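Extended Data, panel c. Modelled sequence:
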Amino acid sequence: MDLGIQGKRALVCAASKGLGRGCALALAREGVSVTIVARGQEALEATLAELRKVGAGGTATIAEMRAVVADITTPEGRAAALAACPAPDILVNNAGGPPPGDFRDWSRDDWIKALDANMLTPIELIKATVDGMIARKFGRIVNITSGAVKAPIDVLGLSNGARSGLTGFVAGLARKTVQHNVTINNLLPGLFDTDRIRNVVGAQAKAKGVEYEKALAERVATIPAGRIGDPAEFGAACAWLCSAQAGYITGQNWLLDGGAYPGTF
């Protein structure tokens, strides 16, 4: 299927590894000119090289693929990202989740840091880009949140709270922008093969006093698909949600978890 987004411009955050990288690569394959942002230069440059390779055959030229070494959760990082891609047609918000732990150990500063990264940063980037999308009559904003928004994970209280706050904000704004062909949706990953999941499962293993492999096997056993997810398939879902065909979908929370969430709604 031609997704109808060749020649569009995308800004993808935290895209050097994991789910952000999967989204960036999927968009590049569709001929989108992708600007990626992350803190680690080495991994970022490796991903940029791959973007240029997969995007070279489309309308996205090698020169239009850019990488910005920056912390997107800071004002300076956001300014650098927007300087490199000032008028994106597609925005993929993503940032590393806060550390797992026990809420009794978290200070106010811990909470503010979590809110800054996983709620306020996406809102600031939406604020900086959405009016341009409205003026151009095309925009796709995708926020990578977490399956914990639907089914909270005990050791991820900081993430549960901050990401739920973003979800509530998006629910209102998405109904105002869609008339201009600007959609805002959230992708909620379950267990995917990323560094983040390895950290979370490691924390759960420590809390239970078991080996990491045992904790991982226990998590996988709860997934009807019988496996953990591949970031490439997450990226493919993101690319479709950014497509021209997805203009009637907004304010939604798409759960990608292999069927792990047991609810009907």
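The mean pLDDT is 93. This feature is highlighted in the accompanying rendering.
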